[in-house]
Model the fold of this input.
Amino acid sequence: MSYCGGCFKGICGKLVPLLLDKPKVRAACRELFKKVDIDNTGTITAKNIEDLLNKLAGKFRFKVPAGAAQMAINAVDQTKSGDISEEEFCQMGERFCEFCGQKLQVAVEATKK
Done:
């Protein structure tokens, strides 16, 4: 058995059910939303994202492109309100986790053949 095959059957195999567990994903998204919504407005604004990106950029020594925060808002903001609601944030997180979970599941199954 290769190292990669062991990884997929081990860690990745355990990760798939978590990524596909919608209630757990939604709970995790809600917690993360609260951490990003530092001004407690009930929405994530471009300023919230900009602050987060700049904090990360400083740690990894890269420059955040101008407009990156607004691009992130536009990608998730289904209601075109200019910010991200908790529901929009959780829906995005659920879609992302479902996509990743399905892809990992296929990879794990492929290692069993």
About this structure: The first helix runs from residue 3 to 19.
